[in-house]
Design goal:
Strand 9, helix 10 and strand 10 form a beta-alpha-beta unit. By secondary structure, this protein is of the alpha+beta class. The strands form three sheets. A six-stranded mixed beta sheet has the order 7-8-6-9-10-11. Strands 3-4-5 form a three-stranded mixed beta sheet. A two-stranded antiparallel sheet has the order 1-2. The protein has two domains: 112 residues, CBS-domain; 156 residues, Alpha-Beta Plaits (2-Layer Sandwich). The two termini are 41 Å apart.
């Protein structure tokens, strides 16, 4: 999802030569807390209710506006906008196209939308966040690896004990996997149903070992009611440098996720714990 999908397009602006009184009246009438300042179609500043508070009403907007406007493009992702808001400690971003303002995105609107992309059951981000995170790491010229973990025969637990108990297991699976990850450089998401995925900046060999620790942790954990939970993992990555194309990071990420997913399917089919895309089976267990 992009900023353009949630921004307010009914943009109310003011010119720098208007009075503070006019700006206050406009904000009150439109029930908004800020006005992009636009001269001849160009964004030259922003004035907020805080900026005009205490200012003499006869002063000009140019005297009280801030010129260091933080902007975002309409094509930016919601997470890119979120990072801008948090980095600058502000409540809204002016959306621009070709240096002209086309909308406003507020912190409350943005956070409400991002909240929809967090899995309500496990508290993990969903697949879209992982894809965005992986693409950002590639843009930063970092190598990445993707681990795709699919629980084995999880439907049997749902059928035998019910979906409420199955949901409890999924929450415990998410907690167990998250405890294995480093605080930085690794991101876990609930990809779909009983599928989980990790993107990591660790080298491929370390990613393979992490995948093995994940499936081993599931297999050796004491689960409620004595049920058995196992998973099969696929790993892809560590060899993208030559084939990488700048500006096409999303395609590269999709390719990695697809390869890791297929590798996990191969692992499940062949009853192996971890399979690396294009590589041989990893059989060593990690305590």
């Amino acid at each position: 999802m992009r900023v353009q999908d949630i921004m307010s397009q009914s943009l109310v602006t003011v010119s720098s030569d208007r009075s503070v009184r006019a700006a206050i009246e406009l904000m009150h009438r439109m029930r908004i807390g800020s006005l992009p300042v636009v001269d001849d179609g160009w964004l030259v500043g922003i004035v907020t209710s805080r900026d005009v508070r205490g200012a003499h009403p006869n002063r000009l907007v140019a005297d009280v506006m801030r010129v260091d406007v933080v902007t975002v493009s309409a094509e930016s992702s919601l997470w890119e906008a979120k990072e801008l808001l948090e980095r600058h400690g502000i409540e809204r971003l002016v959306v621009v196209e070709r240096d002209s303002p086309v909308g406003i995105v507020t912190k409350s609107r943005l956070y409400a939308e991002i909240g929809k992309h967090v899995d309500g059951l496990t508290g993990l981000e969903r697949a879209e966040f992982l894809q965005r995170k992986a693409a950002e790491l590639l843009k930063q010229d970092q190598e990445i690896a993707v681990i795709f973990l699919d629980l084995d025969d999880f439907g049997v637990i749902d059928k035998e004990y019910g979906h409420v108990f199955g949901d409890e297991i999924l929450m415990l699976v998410a907690k167990t996997l998250k405890e294995l990850l480093a605080d930085e450089g690794e991101c876990l998401c609930r990809y779909a149903g009983d599928e989980f995925a990790v993107v990591t900046t660790a080298p491929l060999d370390e990613a393979k070992q992490l995948a093995l620790r994940m499936v081993t942790a599931l297999r050796t954990k004491n689960w409620p009611r004595g049920v058995k939970v196992t998973g099969s993992a696929g790993v892809a990555g560590g060899r993208r440098q030559l084939g990488r194309q700048t500006g096409n990071e999303i395609h590269t990420v999709s390719d990695l996720i697809n390869m890791a997913s297929l590798a996990s399917t191969a692992a499940k089919k062949d009853k192996k714990q971890v399979v690396v895309a294009g590589k041989v089976e990893l059989t060593e267990e990690v305590p």
